Structure formats: C-alpha cells, structure tokens
Amino acid sequence: MEEFFQQLTNGLAVGGIYALIALGYTMVYGVLKLINFAHGDLFTLGAYLGFTLLTSFGLSDRVGPLLGVLILALMVMGLVALVGMILERSAYKPLRQSPRLSAVVSALGASIFIQNSIMLVYGPNIQVYPHNIMPDTVIHLFGMPVPLMRILILVASVVLMVALYLFIQKTRTGTAIRAAAIDQGAAALMGINVDRVIMLVFLLGPALGGSAGLMVGLYYGQVNFTMGWVYGLKAFTAAILGGIGNIPGAMLGGLLLGLVEALGAAYISIAWKDAIAFGVLIFILIVRPTGLLGERVADKI
Amino acid sequence: MDLVIKDLKVKYGNVEALHGINLRVEPREIVTILGANGAGKSTTLMAISGLVPACEGEILFNGMALHKMKPHQVVKTGVAQVPEGRRVFGTLTVAENLHLGAFTTRDAAKEIKTRDWIYELFPVLKERREQLAGTLSGGEQQMLAIGRALMADPKLLLLDEPSLGLAPLIIKRIFDTVRQINEAGVTVVLVEQNARAALKLAHRGYVLEVGNIVLEDQASTLLSNEDVQNAYLGGH
After folding, report:
1. Do A172 and B71 touch (CB under 8 A)?
2. Could you tell me the residue ranges of all domains in chain A?
3. Hey, which residues 78-137 in chain B have their CB within 8 Å of chain A?
4. Contact status, residue B150 vs residue B162, Cβ threshold 8 Å
5. Complex ipTM, two decimals?
6. How far lies A274's CA from each of A126, A199, A233, A277, B96, in Å?
7. pLDDT of chain B along its 236 residues, tens only?
8. How many Cβ contacts (< 8 angstroms) between chains A and B?
9. Domain A2-123+137-287 = CATH 3.10.590
10. Smallest CA–CA separation between A164 and chain B, in Å?
11. pTM summary value
C-alpha cells in the first residue's frame, strides 16, 4: 500500500510536469497548427535559468525557502516567456505565409540553436542544483511519508493549470485564443488581433514550460542540456494522448502519462518505463485517433 | 457613412483577381454584387475586410482608409462581414459565438441589448443558445453568422453568399431579415449567386466578370436587363 501511494504521488508530480510542458505544445498547435520543436529546449532553458538565479542571488537565504522559490519561479517564467516571444518573432512569424514544412524545419533549427547555446554557456556537463534551498522535509499524508517537494510540485502545477484553464474559459482574451484556434480568419472578422493572440500563446506556453524546467531541477536536483529532448517527447506524447490542440486534454494526458509511467516502472519493470509510456500512446491512438478529449463535436457540413 | 472603392487591384501570387474596380455604396443602401464563380465577388469583400491586401487602389469607408488596415482594425470602423460558408465557431456555443461577435464593443449593457434584438430577429438562436454551433442546421448556422456579425453593431454589413446550400424557404426568411436589418439603419453589401432574389432585395447592383465591373445600375433595371437575364437569371 505504501509503495503504491509513493508511486501514485510521484506519478502525479511527474505527470504535472509533463502536463505543463504539454500545454505549450498544444496551445501553439491549436493556434498555428505547428509543432514547436523548440519547446522542449525552452523547458531546458527554464531549468538552467533557475539554476543560475538560485546560485547567484541566494534568494532563499534572504526571504526564506518558500517565498524565495516562488519569486524565482516567477522570474524564470518571465524570462522564458520572453525568449518564447523572441523565438516566435524570429523563427516563425517570417514564415507565417510559407508552406507548413518551412516552419517545421525552422522549429527544428531553433531547437538545435537553443540547445547548443545552453551548452556553450553552461558547458556540456550535468549541473547540480544547490541542495540547501528547499529543506528535505517529509510530511505525512494519510499516515504515509511523502517528500514535501513532491507535494509542492503537484500543488504548483495544479494551480498553474487551473489558472490557465480559467483564463482560457472565462476571460475575453481567453475566448479570443479559443476562437483563433478554431478559425483564424473568422476570428479576425470578429475584431480579434490574431497576431497578438499568437504572441500571447508564445508567452504563456514557454512560461509554463520554463516553470516545469525549474520543477525538474528542484525535484531531481540536477539538469543537463539535452534534458529537453526526453521531456519534450514525453510531453508531446501527453498532448497527443489528450487530443492535440485541446487544453484540458493536455492536462489529462500529462497526469495520465506520469501515472502510467510511475506505476509501470514500479510494478512491471523500470527498464520498460518508456516502452509503457509510448505503448499507451499507440493504444489510445488506435482506439481513439483524436486523443482522449480531441474533437468535442464533428463539424456539420 | 459611404463606402468608396477606387481602382482596386488584388493579386493572389501572380494572378490578378481584381483588375481595378470602382464601386460606391451610399448610406442605408443595399447593394448587391453579382457574378459567376471566380469573378472576384468574395475577393472584393475580403479586400474590404482586410483579409486580402489591396495591391493598388483605395478602399475608403467614411473617409477612413480600410486598405491600410488589418482585419481587426476594419471591424472597429463599423464594418462586419458574414463570410462565405458561415464559418461559425463550431465547438463553441451559440451564446459564445454571439459574445465573440461583440469582441470590439466593450459595453456590456449595449451587448445585451444587441443580443436581445438578434434573438428577436432569430428566435431559434435564443432556444439553442447553450448548444454548440456545429450542431446547428445550415440555415441556423447562417442565422448565427449574421447575428454574430450584427453583435459588432456595424454600420456596414458585408454578406457573402448567405443563401449558399440553403432551402428556398430558409433563403426567403434570411433575405427578409436582411431587409429588416437594413431598415434598422445598416448599410448592406450582398454578394450572391442567387441573382434574382438578390436584385429583388437590393437597391442597386454591380455585375462583376473576371475581375472587372461590367455593369452597374438600379436593381430593378438590372432585373429587366436582357444580358443580365441571359447570364444570371437563367433567361426567359
């Protein structure tokens, strides 16, 4: 029972991280029908910026660990969002009218560019997050010990997801994003500035991806410049699992993938972890090609 | 409140779709643009809305240069379009679609007033307000598309093929409503293949042929014009 509980909370924490990254893929795909292959590297950038800010400011010494990490997270999100916006401006916007494939190639190029820039700045070795920022507190939930960090990551990712969901569903700007994702031309005819919507999506997605990078750094204690590849691929899988372009789908897909992976690793074999994750993807795509929540309604012709 | 198009040229790549057309719409008029497929009717409306760039010439609405604006700026000048094929937001509800139509008007009280008027024009939209737009019938979607455009409180309404694919009874219903909308003070530009119905509704008409305006007159005169009858009214 305790083993199961540990794997459950671990799976949900990792799943929350996948979900945050998956949201970036799914939002960009929703509006531009483009897979932003550089998204995983923005996630890596978040992890590295977190590392730099942690080691250079000593924030947690001054304002305490919780508030320190919160301020740090906001700084990382802001910076990665900025890079996301610059990425859109420089790599995607000039190709808006070009064939789809050009943008895909540009995305791959941007991915390599960001990854190598990180390597040149930080070096190719693994970087270790300082150990003393977050106390290794263990709390007891239902009588079972759980690391506080794990709970914090789960709570933070859920808070971010709920905030995003409310923003998309309830606000005027959120409705504009949904409209532009359905039909850009029709959205423009409503008076929606589609360029601004695209820019906003490239601020929100990278901000969430960057926060996920920081979480991985804090959770596992180390980062390397190629980590964006694996996490990106997993999160992309999560986005497809939930139905690409669908925001609640990315959240569900991420959490589900994290759970399946953790439980599969614990009860089947850790060596099969990735095979199980992608096996689930293949199974879902065979049974429901649109993903779990894809296509709420078939458009009438 | 007039719309003036001067020597408008539009190109898709290397292909010129409009070869310099001139067109004028007076306030509170219904003007119809007739023509065969590919004549440039939809292109004209898209150029007015800013969805395709004008490569030469001018589009002036109340003296404002629409040809220099982006689509969302054109909407703010009081020009709304009901695009060809309706293009309602299928996975959003009827109410959400109407709400999006009012995207540029930030006045909540006015939005409710306009919405109530639209529910009066099309009671079926009120009944189905919580339903996803994609589940409506073609006629209902057309009504929603018109209602959505009216939510912007436009002074000029551009209608692109509102009768496309609809049953005759529904077409009549929609055209009657367009007349009502016009009587409420909205100028209308109507692009139609259903030339007879369009000319009966409109005050004036233009005939487009492969990117040029070849004829322009009072609607009643066009209805009895022999060339128009042969080409667009199926002859007699």
Report:
1. no
2. 2-123+137-287
3. 80-81, 83, 87-92, 96, 99-101, 103-104, 132, 134-137
4. no
5. 0.93
6. 22, 33, 11, 5, 41
7. 699 999 999 999 889 999 999 999 999 999 999 998 889 999 999 999 999 999 999 999 999 999 999 999 999 999 999 999 999 999 999 999 999 999 998 899 999 999 999 999 999 999 999 999 999 999 999 999 999 999 999 999 999 999 998 999 999 999 999 999 999 999 999 999 888 999 999 999 999 999 999 999 999 999 988 888 888 877 54
8. 79
9. no
10. 18
11. 0.90
